[in-house]
Amino acid sequence: PVPYPFDHVESKWQAFWEENKTFKTPERNKSRPKKYVLDMFPYPSGAGLHVGHPEGYTASDVMARYWRMTGHDVLHPIGWDSFGLPAEQFAVQTGAQPADTTKANIANFKRQLKMLGFSYDWDRELATTDINYVKWTQWIFLQLFKKGLAEQSEVSVNWCPALGTVLANEEVINGKSERGDHPVMRLPLRQWVLKITNYADRLEAGLDGLDWPSGTLTAQQQWIGKSTGCEIVFDVEGNNSESVRVFTTRPDTLMGVTYVTLAPEHPLVSALTTPEQKEAVDKYVAETSSRSDLDRTSSKEKTGVFTGGYVTHPLSGEKVPVWVGDYVLGSYGTGAVMAVPAHDSRDFEFAKAFDLEIKWVVKPKEGELNEEEAFTEPGVSMNSGEFDGMTTDKCKEAVTKKLEENNKGGAKITYKLRDWVFSRQRYWGEPIPIYFPVDFPKGVDAKTQNPASDGCEHTIRYDQPIPVDEADLPLELPLMEDFKPGDDPAGCLARAKDWRYFEKDGKWFARETNTMPQWAGSCWYYLRFLDPKNNNEAFSKQADKDWMPVDLYVGGAEHAVLHLLYARFWHQVLFDLGYTEHPEPFQKLVHQGMILGSDGEKMSKSRGNVVNPDDIVTDQGADALRLYEMFMGPLEAVKPWQTSQVAGVVRFQNKVYNVVKVAAENNETEMDVETTRLLHKTMKKVTEDIKSMSFNTAISAMMVLTNHLQTLKEKVPLEAAEKLSLMVSPFAPHLGEECWSILGNTESLAYHPWVEYDETLCVDDEITMGVQVNGKARGEITIPADADEETAMAAAKEVDRVMNQIEGKEIKKIIYVPGRILNIIAK
Ligand code: ANZ
Fold first, then answer.
1. What is the pLDDT of residues 422-450, one digit of tens each?
2. How far is the CA of 558 from the centre of ligand 1 (A)?
3. What residue stretches are annotated with the Methionyl/Leucyl tRNA synthetase domain (predicted)?
4. Helix (H, G, I), strand (E, B), or coil: what is residue 262?
5. Which of 184, 264, 382, 556 could serve as a FRET partner for 616 with CA atoms 20 to 30 Å apart?
6. Does domain 227-414 have CATH number 3.90.740.10?
7. How does DSSP classify residue 239?
8. Considering the entire predicted model, what is its pTM?
9. Would you identify the CATH topology of the domain 764-826?
10. By the 8 A CB rule, do 308 and 276 touch?
11. CA pair distance 80, 78, nearest whole angstrom
12. What CATH code is assigned to 643-761?
């Protein structure tokens, strides 16, 4: 055998594919099925590709190549998620411009992806930082703005002084920034907010029918947090016009309410507070204002204070005391709860802490109430007058109905999902295409003023946002020498005064200085891939019709909530506006499992366990890396990297190469029965395994076939070598093409029809043979012709007449000649 010259072969085929534009997306041919195969595009960091990237990218590439060979039109694009905080921080560290570092990082990533032989259509490459992409991201923002889905709001935001930016709730973990682990504080700030909550019901309902991992569906559901219950009105005692509305999932416990609790930020706190309680309430509200929602809900110790005020129970008419407690969140439901300490653990802890009344109104269906803790399970109502004896479900309905009749509330659905804080006080993002009029002090002639000059007194009318004319897009970032965040929460763009202020028709205006978050670009890149060169629209309706939805989306589970939810939200808006025919963008989603270091730990620079794909490709080749990553285990599983195992797939490649060479030289060899059967079984297995993305088992089936072909020495049939080359090509495309050409083909196999197996040839030949016990015929068995002794014995023991003879006896000897005789000697 000769060694497989991977180095030379891989560069040769990469040049061939590039020159021939082998993977250029075809014009859609309506008579053929289509597949849109999408990778979560990479963020081009300064560190380059790590071995986790090629795992998902190889998996999608196998599918794209398989589908091309099975008669599909395939769209398989790639691009760069290149805006964002890390790129900006990297530029700050290296003293360079983010535009330049981004360009260099993209070039490096591109080199690495090309070296791995992925079948991307490079003509569709895009970066979210491309000005022609920014233009359409800004255009989508304007559509959101015009639809009332983007608005400004004074929000209590998560301000991270170290990063100089506001973070979305989801970017804050335990009071620290997700990126960098810096402290985060709450601060009111003017922000752009996208009204994703308007789509909460659609985002929830749309999950139905998606072929996604169940964990990801659950994560999205929990994030959206649909809660079905009831809103109930408690009128304020001694004030006819005010009432406290509460949201509850347990209207059946209404007769067990012993107090009402308001969140400290509830608007009625001061109205309900009596003069005697004012000092205590004010103090409490001030103390709790800085606590995060997470702290407030997770701490066991309940704090609070009595307002001195009362509300009226909507059914009993009794006076109910009103408390303030920070375990009630201002941002969820109505910001107020009807407290039922007997049946809600939080209320129970609060009632115990302040010695408040506990009224039991639900008992278990069986057994006794334990009054040491809240009984939160469903059961049967008691101490509830007309509702007594009803099951929890029945009682919920009855109470809701009664409240509706009395005009004191009704059924209500609430979501945990919050609106999306969309502005960042950073440089490296898409400028938000909005501007505001500038006012000067009374009596000052605007014509003589320039708000960009120092000391020119003026006011920016944030209350009058004006969208940039669509014809004026893109709105480019100004070039700034110093783009570090400052202490101005308006962001660093506020310092680019010549960019910020402009004059039009004799009037002065100021641009929005916030930029979009990194999520913006990744919300719609899959749509731009449909039509990346279109200068007149974000993407054409025809392109949407041709290619959407994405048939397979491969990427990390870390995007299970945010990216996928934000992208679905934008998509649904574009659907409502008629730009896409498809309500959901990603039909099937697969998460590749993380590849750990050889020590079983997450790869990280500090641990020194990072495997660099460049090294593997240089030493063993791209196909070896691809094969190894697909062979490591099931795609979704978390797997440790084992460099020693790469040698195994290298040996496999060498064997494939050599059996193919032998077949090419002696191409007269005919297929024998055994090879025919193994070949068809392998073709069946590989085909089925690719369909179910079970790549490791497909590769091991090809290994078995290759080992068999190797045992044929100089007699490898051409047909077997051809089929093996085709099957191996989605995994090891360079090797596949090389083998294909060694076998005398002059065209690439990228579009050659996939192998077809004959089901009848996949079944093992079976024979029927007699079974003897102590030399006497006792029955017959039907087993594969080449079955081993164990299989034959197992079949024999199924035969009653055989079993009767050997039961309770010791088997002394078995005489087995496959296909001829099975004689069991038993005493
Ligand atoms: C009375 C009650 C009785 C409740 C009972 C529960 C059990 P989910 O499922 O998460 O939606 N709640 C409502 N608004 C709240 C807020 N802003 N902050 C903290 N808690 C709030 O939970 C809904 C339940 O959480 C509501 O039902 C309310 O407590 C509480 F035996 O009302 B319940």
1. 998 899 999 999 999 999 999 888 888 89
2. 29
3. 41-172, 570-635
4. strand
5. 556
6. yes
7. -
8. 0.88
9. Ubiquitin-like (UB roll) (3.10.20)
10. yes
11. 7
12. 1.10.730.10
